[in-house]
Design a protein that fits this description.
94 residues, alpha+beta, 2 helices, 4 strands
């Protein structure tokens, strides 16, 4: 978990792309590259973040870019139960 002052806190801005997709934009780099697979050892941190997000109940798909994470949810879940967990995973990763 991120420690320090509020100035050190990770800033996350969300925007929606339909009812089932949200983009989380960060002010810090999450990955060196777009992560679509688990082959590059240099992307260990991004892969770990992706695994954590995909482990959240209701998350159907997730993608990690340098400063952005895209999350798609299942129809049965509400964003209210997913968003705080995704943001917690992001903050722990950066």
């Amino acid at each position: 978990m991120q420690t320090g002052t509020d100035a050190d806190a990770v800033k996350i801005v969300r925007n929606s792309s339909g009812d089932h997709t949200i983009y989380f934009h960060m002010d810090r780099k999450v990955s060196e590259n777009y992560v679509s697979d688990f082959r590059e050892e240099s992307e260990k941190e991004a892969r770990d973040l992706l695994r954590k997000i995909l482990g959240i109940q209701g998350v159907q798909e997730a993608y990690v870019w340098r400063y952005k994470v895209k999350v798609e949810k299942t129809l049965a879940m509400e964003w209210d139960s997913i968003i705080p967990k995704v943001e917690e995973a992001i903050r722990a990763a950066v």
